[in-house]
Design brief:
Blueprint: E1 5-8, H1 12-23, E2 28-31, H2 36-41, E3 47-48, H3 50-58, H4 63-68, E4 70-72, E5 74-79, E6 82-87, H5 88-92, E7 96-98, H6 101-115, E8 119-120, E9 124-129, E10 137-142, E11 145-150, E12 153-156, H7 163-166, E13 174-189, E14 199-202, E15 208-212, E16 218-224, H8 235-245, H9 248-253, E17 259-273, E18 276-277, E19 280-282, E20 288-289, H10 297-316, H11 321-324, H12 326-348, H13 355-371, H14 373-383
Parallel strand pairs: 1-2, 1-12, 2-8, 5-14, 12-19
Antiparallel strand pairs: 3-7, 4-7, 5-6, 9-10, 10-11, 13-16, 13-17, 14-15, 15-16, 17-20, 18-19
Bound molecules: flavin-adenine dinucleotide (FAD) and 3,4-dihydroxybenzoic acid (DHB).
3,4-dihydroxybenzoic acid (DHB) binds next to β15.
Length: 390
């Protein structure tokens, strides 16, 4: 098979890129190691920046998102038992959209199938070759048969554990990493959200987050020890712990019910530089990871894809500038989101080694944040998504 772009990975980054390239008349195949059902079964992000919403619209797949997604004008921060609202719309004139990564992925998969665009699921032993030449190749096995794809470029959209970044010679790559000393235990339940907006909680028992997927489906998280196990957490124990971390009104209003998903995610900050190696270009989690606090992971993947799609479109029109600057344009935005996610994580979690001094500093910062318009504006403009610098 020969295509212009071989995309590795059918997560949000790969699927969105595929759709945008199709719109630009550029041929692509997506090669994914898992099944479609497996990809859709992963419960992950839920908050879309306006730029991500825009990109879904440009890709022609925004219809259901606008019908079913919930527009949020602000969020709440809860500390010392009281909630304080940050009004994004008033402060920076922008909003965010509540729409699950699962739904976004499903919309992209459906559109791809309806257009008859090629996607290979359950591809085994995917390998990328010759990306330091003008003729890169991808090989994989499917149903026991060996396949080869010849292409102009390989888009590495295969997530943090993917094969693309791992195929780059280690001396060509500089990585930056911070691993946090706790995890997030999350549950999904078909219960009405405790509040219209998200609540980020700093509590002496640890961080908590009240999020949602719709008016009837809630997503809640509590900070937990890194070595904790899902089996240690009955639904009842989870709800009791969450209730302890909420303000009194929210605790009383919380509607509980059986969980439909429960998992523990580790928290990590990670950036690989650069994101381009000859004709291999990394996008999304393949190149960087943020801790989930602040909901930047999926949005950063979408912003890399925006730069990559534009760079490839320019390339085929004869202009190489955007491709030459792909890595630095992405990284400028990535590092700002890394900073914001690290800062939100530092502000809201209990760190085992920070002690009373650390807790007092957090409280002082939170007080400053909710009472200073300058500080609230800074949070708001980062949360809704920084500009793309085009
Ligand atoms: P992915 O979604 O990881 O997609 C990569 C795809 O590549 C996968 O489908 C994978 O199967 C495939 N792949 C991997 N290796 C290969 C290979 N060798 N060959 C072929 N295909 C391959 N963000 C938030 O904002 N909020 C959250 O609450 C949140 N929770 C998260 C929970 C977890 C457990 C994880 C891992 C991430 C979470 N994130 C969250 C981050 C967010 O989901 C990611 O940033 C987002 O999925 C990135 O999209 P992506 O397409 O770059 O990567
Ligand atoms: C969600 C996750 C986040 O990390 C966040 O900051 C907001 C919402 C969520 O999964 O809904």
């Amino acid at each position: 098979m020969r295509v212009q772009i071989a995309i590795i990975g059918a997560g949000p980054a790969g699927l969105l890129l595929g759709q945008l390239l199709h719109g630009a008349g550029i041929s692509a195949v997506i090669i994914e190691q898992r099944s479609q059902e497996y990809v859709l079964g992963r419960i992950r992000a839920g908050v879309l920046e306006q730029g991500t919403v825009e990109l879904m619209d440009i890709a022609g797949v925004g219809g259901r998102m606008h019908r079913e997604g919930l527009v949020h004008d602000g969020t709440e921060l809860c500390f010392k038992g009281e909630r304080h609202r940050i009004d994004f719309h008033k402060l920076v004139g922008k909003t965010v959209m509540i729409y699950g990564q699962t739904e976004l992925t499903r919309d992209l998969m459906d559109a791809r199938r309806a257009l008859g665009l090629p996607t290979v699921y359950e591809a085994a032993n995917v390998a990328v070759h010759d990306f330091d030449t003008a003729h890169p190749r991808v090989t994989y096995e499917k149903d026991g048969l060996a396949h080869e794809v010849q292409c102009d470029f390989i888009a590495g959209c295969d997530g943090f554990h993917g094969v693309c970044r791992a195929s780059v010679p280690t001396d060509a790559l500089h990585t930056y990493e911070r691993v946090y000393p706790f995890g997030w235990l999350g549950i999904l339940s078909d219960t009405p959200p405790v509040s219209d907006e998200l609540i980020y909680v700093n509590h002496e028992r640890g961080f908590a987050l009240c999020s949602q997927r719709s008016t009837t489906r809630s997503r809640y998280y509590v900070q937990c020890p890194l070595d904790d196990k899902v089996e240690n957490w009955s639904d009842e124990r989870f709800w009791d712990e969450l209730r302890l971390r909420l303000d009194r009104e929210a605790a009383e209003r919380l509607v509980t019910g059986p969980s439909i998903e429960k998992s523990i995610a580790p928290l990590r900050s990670f950036v690989a530089e650069p994101l381009r190696f000859g004709r291999l270009l990394l996008a999304g989690d393949a190149g960087h990871i943020v801790p989930p606090t602040g909901a930047k992971g999926l949005n950063l993947a979408a912003s890399d894809v925006r730069f990559l799609w534009q760079a490839l479109e320019d390339h085929y029109r004869g202009n190489q500038t955007a491709l030459e600057h792909y890595s630095e344009r992405c990284l400028a935005r990535i590092w700002k989101a890394e900073r914001f996610s690290w800062w939100m994580t530092s502000l809201l979690h209990r760190f085992p080694d920070n002690g009373d001094f650390g807790r007092k500093i957090q409280e002082a910062e939170l007080e400053y944040l909710v009472h200073s318009e300058a500080a609230s504006t800074s949070l708001a403009e980062n949360y809704v998504g920084l500009p793309f610098g085009e």
